[in-house]
Amino acid sequence: MTLTEKHNNSGKIKDPAFLSMQDAVAAALKSKHPTNPIGATLEFSDGTRLSSSNLYIDALGPIDQKFGGAGPTIHAEMATILNAIKEGKITLGAKIYITDPPCPSCMKILVEAGISEIFVDNKGFEKDWYKKRGQDFREMSLSLAGQAGIPIHRLKRNKDKMTAETGLLNKNLLNECPQKLPYSAVEFKQIIEGHTAYIPDLIKKAKAHFGEDKRIAAMVGQPINSTFSGAPMFIAYVQSNAVSMHMDGNALTYKSEKYTFEMLAMDRLIASSARHGLMPISPLILSNYETGSELIDLAGLARITRDGKMLEISFLERTEHNPDLYGVMYSLSEASLVQETNVPQEIIVNQKELDMYEVFSSEIT
């Protein structure tokens, strides 16, 4: 991970897009992934940049190990979003530069994180993933970005500057959706001076709002350089289609062998934390886990943001339907990354609860 400014060592100002993509390429070169190193760089409005490679979690076994279809690697886009949380950088409005075309799973993360513009290195379209999954990128990744009003550019590095190789990749989709539309509903409850927050009550109210049958992910987060004030926030997300409030019916008809338009509640929680500058200060609370990718992302959250401290996780319910995933939880615990704990009854933050829940849907920007 790097956090850099616009200027190079000589003091000469280069094309910011060139520098950002060079940072992404440099990050990819540091990746420990043996066959597919990828890098990504977030460029913030203040000119700072933050880069990460894809992160291989070696504690989970060999690189080709599968856990419910997911390998033991955090994608570069997710790793960069997690580093933004660690550094207290708000991703809302940031641009991202990636060495490879983002898969639909990563695109959902970027949409929820509030990324404003995406740049992909031209050489990434020559690699194996695009050759194998190019249709998924064209039908899903481009559609997700277009529906959210996020332009995607294919760029070519040329000495000290970038040139547009093919211009906007999702121009037609953007024309169909020229304005950024509301992001899917999330529930926040701000806690202010004087009382204790009772987590079971907050969960109960959140489930009543979203629906008892919805899978939920929740936490209490401390704002760091946040879009909110300094008081801790209770935040809850549910699992549903990505950008569900503005995905038209035609966009959802494409069927992939590997990807879906549905986004995990926990990934929504992570992306929204980065978008608003929230650092978890309570255990992550999940309905349950059903996919390997959910647990891999938990490993990334623990490895990147916790500085050696184990990430505490609480489950509202447990089902014994997938022994392989319980094996992942055991491996994460043995690697001192994740520790399962009881659902917290309360969190004392020297703050008083608001009388009413604040529920944001289209109001969130």
Structural summary, described in words:
- The structure is a single chain.
- The chain is of the alpha+beta class and 365 residues long.
- It is built from 9 helices and 22 strands.
- The strands form 5 sheets. Strands 10, 12, 13, 16, 17, 18, 19, 21 and 22 form a 9-stranded mixed beta sheet that branches. The protein has a 7-stranded mixed beta sheet with strand order 1-3-2-6-7-8-9, with helices on both faces.
- Helix 8 packs parallel to helix 9.
- The longest helix is centred in the middle third of the chain and has 20 residues.
- The chain is globular and about 55 Å long.
- The chain starts with a strand and ends in a 5-residue tail after the last strand.
- The N terminus and C terminus are likely disordered.
SSE blueprint and pairings:
Layout: E1 2-4, H1 16-29, E2 39-43, E3 49-53, E4 55-56, E5 73-74, H2 76-87, E6 95-98, H3 104-112, E7 117-121, H4 128-147, E8 152-158, E9 161-168, H5 171-176, E10 186-193, E11 196-197, H6 199-210, E12 216-223, E13 233-238, E14 240-241, E15 262-263, H7 265-276, E16 278-280, E17 284-286, H8 292-305, E18 311-315, H9 323-334, E19 338-340, E20 347-348, E21 351-353, E22 358-360
Helix pairs in contact: 2-7, 2-8, 3-4, 3-7, 8-9
